[in-house]
Amino acid sequence: MSEYPNIPLRYRTMGAISALLSGTRFGRAFDTFFVNRYEASMPGSPRRTWLPAFTRDARYDATPYARWEMDRKIRYFERNSWLVKKIGDQFEKYTVGPFGLQVMPASSDSEWNKRMTDAYGEWCEHPCIDSLRHMSGVHKLIARSFDLDGEIFILKTREKKGGRQSVPRVQLVESHRCSTPGFGSSDGNVADWIDGVKVDENGKPIAYALRDDRDGNVWTSRPADSVIHIFEPPRVGMWRAVTPYHAVLNTLHDLDDLGMWEMEQAKERAMIAVVMQTWNG
Q: How far is 19 from 8, CA to CA, in rounded Å?
């Protein structure tokens, strides 16, 4: 009588081969595919499709094209889908609130706290160099851009008027305005740039290429200490962000198409009256 009566012959054969090849490279590969394997480690099977994914650095997954295409789609849905717009409204509401983030000096000197509160409140009336927006509106734009595109850039600059001392200002820069320099760049060596970010030998950002002119045809290299890059990378080695909606964009697209087709059918049935008459009237 067999010592293992309930084990099929093919499994006993695989166990014998595994023991024979134990410790060798081929033996390890054999064990991976046939013996004590993780089912999830199999690249595919007759019962499951192959997943188009590879293990590599994040910069090769979040390419400029992938980021731009997903930004294009989510901005479309923000304009045309009530659901995406409502999610953005809620995100803005519960992150910065209706009046923006409040800054309250809290030093031990109450007089200094009062002066700083007054000075900051005065500066908040006109913090941007390119608009008349109040700081509360700036905070709302930052929150909405972060929710939609996954990132936004804040350029720290200064403004001087009428011979007076220059005043600190900020300028918001949307995601699509940071890109690897092209024709007209102030930095001709584009090989050092990764999707609009110049990094040193350690991978630390040292500059950002921002489109400065109104038409977006001229790039200017801005040092990293003059730019605040607001984003939350989900992986190590990501110098740029992708939209947080990336995993549901195809679902949003399918729902949008489905709603359009269903409405077309409803309109067609509402316009056309169909009368059916049997053979006996």
A: 17
Question: How many angstroms separate the CA atoms of 213 and 172, rounded?
Answer: 14
Instruction: Using alpha carbons only, give the angle 222, 121, 160 rounded to the nearest 5 degrees.
Output: 45
Rounded-to-integer distance, Cα 141 and Cα 275, Å: 55
Cα separations in angstroms, 78 against 81, 158, 195, 225, 246: 6, 33, 24, 32, 13
> Which stretches of the chain are DSSP H helices?
9-20, 25-34, 58-61, 64-80, 82-95, 110-123, 135-149, 249-271
What span, in angstroms and rounded, lies between the C-alpha atoms of 199 and 221? Answer: 12
Q: pLDDT at residue 184 above 50? A: no
Which two three-digit tokens encode residue 280? Answer: 């006996």
d(Cα 16, Cα 200) in Å, to the nearest integer?
A: 53
| pTM for the whole structure | 0.79
Say whether 167 sits in a helix, a strand or coil. strand
Place of tokens 């195809």: 250
CA 274/CA 269 separation, integer angstroms: 9
Q: Check whether 38 has a pLDDT greater than 50.
A: yes
At 122-133, the pLDDT tens digits run: 999 999 998 999
